[in-house]
Design brief:
The protein has 163 residues and is an alpha+beta fold. It folds into 2 domains: 69 residues, no CATH class; 81 residues, no CATH class. It is built from 4 helices and 11 strands; from the N terminus they run βαααββββββββαββ. The strands form 4 sheets. Strands 8-7-6-5-9 form a 5-stranded antiparallel sheet, covered by helices on one side. A two-stranded antiparallel ribbon has the order 1-4. The protein has a two-stranded antiparallel sheet with strand order 2-3. It is elongated, with a radius of gyration of 20 Å. The two termini are 15 Å apart.
Amino acid sequence: MQKFRFKTEKEFKNEFGSNWRRKIRSSWIEEMDYLLGKKVPKNIVRDILEEGISFRGENGTNFAFSRDMITPIREKPARGRIIVITGSSFGNIKGTITKILHVEDNNTVLTEAIHPGDSFRYYLNKPAWYEKHWRYADEEEKEAWRKGKHMSPKFDKTYKRFL
């Protein structure tokens, strides 16, 4: 699941104006300010996205979290990370596992040769490609890559989709 963080005060003001605390669904009370900009724990992300949740703070204050309080964390590509191609384009084959060799200043990613025997490497353009055309591999996919496999074990070649 994608990672999220609570928005910063600046983001709230840009989106909701100067009276942002009252305009946000469920309201943002001052006792919640320590959460501004912090990561949202994985175990509550789904609940916040689906219906919003309530939470009792350390001092007994009840908080209510809603979808408009959080924003996705955009991870920058990292050299050496194992990735899985999730979209077919520019010669990339959906379901292929590869490794990031280099990340340029503009976040263009250079990967290892995707097809066994290829002598050239591939560029994946711009950070916007993350999650649309590729994602970081999970443990099962990393293990398959270490064993020399080039396709994700979660990719069904027959139906050309991830399981």
